[in-house]
Amino acid sequence: MIDAYGRDINYLRISVTDLCNLKCTYCMPEKGIEKKERCDILSLETMEKIAETAVKLGITKIRLTGGEPLVRRGILDLVQNIALLKNKGLKELGLTTNGLLLEKYADDLKKAGLTRVNISIDSMDPAKYKEITRCGNVQDVLEGVRAAKEAKLFPLKINVVLIGGFNDNEIEDFVAMTMDDDIEVRFIELMPIGEAGAWGREHFLSNEEILKRVPTLIPMPFKGHGSVARLYKLPNSKGKVGLISSLSSHFCNYCNRIRITPDGKLKPCLHSNIEIDIRNYGENGLEKFLMDGIMAKPTRHCIQNSDFEPVIRNMHEIGG
């Protein structure tokens, strides 16, 4: 599916819930959130129909996100049913998780047809992890990482949101994880969305900081279209380091994705408040719903502009 600027849109992210078993400070308000009524959240059946229609239109990659997708009841059935689309053109089915429930679900997710998993860890220090998540135990996440490896949910990626004054002193430790394990540690620049929209500038660090701290990183060939991460590796390492620089070096020219929120809104761009509501389309209007969303994609986001208005919604409401 080609958008108005000639980009091939082949990647769909579906947020299956806005609920989470953590309350990360940049993602969710401290008081938590109120659980929505069932009628306000897309059913799993509707998500499956969206996925089927998207693959029919040319989507080859689908990722399930949240909130925390593994707290959604019926998630294994959803994975299994979407995985059936591999016979119709779907090449990859991934899931982004905080990892807390992976020890329980990794094997079943693999058997259901999940291709790969991304695990979010913003600190490996137990006290700091509990601080940023307001309640989490990092050891549970590390057990989830182990379970994902054993289930062969590869390639395995670790997502780290880089936060100035909080976890920037752990950069070298995260990079070192790639030395002996075939994993990709991905540093993601903190984005001014929702709760983080009002944070001080000192918390927003460019990914250039990683290259300053670890000058031995070797750049790898750029994958081009659809790739959001610039890849590097340590000499003789088994794994890789990815830098996702949404703010300092945007990849809008290569953006190949659209997002569906848990309440049925299609977001053409993560950094825009533009949303297209599925409820404005009839039961047989899913193709138009998706195509309208694709054609509404802007040429680029405007975070650096002085008149930029931060996205109102928090990340748990959108899906990462």
UniProtKB/TrEMBL annotation:
Residues reported to bind S-adenosyl-L-methionine: 26, 67, 120, 191
Binding site for [4Fe-4S] cluster 1: 20, 24, 27
Keyword GTP-binding: yes
Keyword check for 4Fe-4S: yes
Top enzyme category: lyase
SMART domains: Elp3 (SM00729)
Cross-referenced InterPro entries: Aldolase_TIM, Elp3/MiaA/NifB-like_rSAM, MoaA, MoaA-like, MoaA_twitch, MoCo_biosynth_MoaA/MoaC, rSAM, rSAM_sf
Binding-site residues for GTP, renumbered to this chain: 13, 63, 96, 157, 257-259
Pathway: Cofactor biosynthesis; molybdopterin biosynthesis
Subunit architecture: Monomer and homodimer.
Protein name: GTP 3',8-cyclase
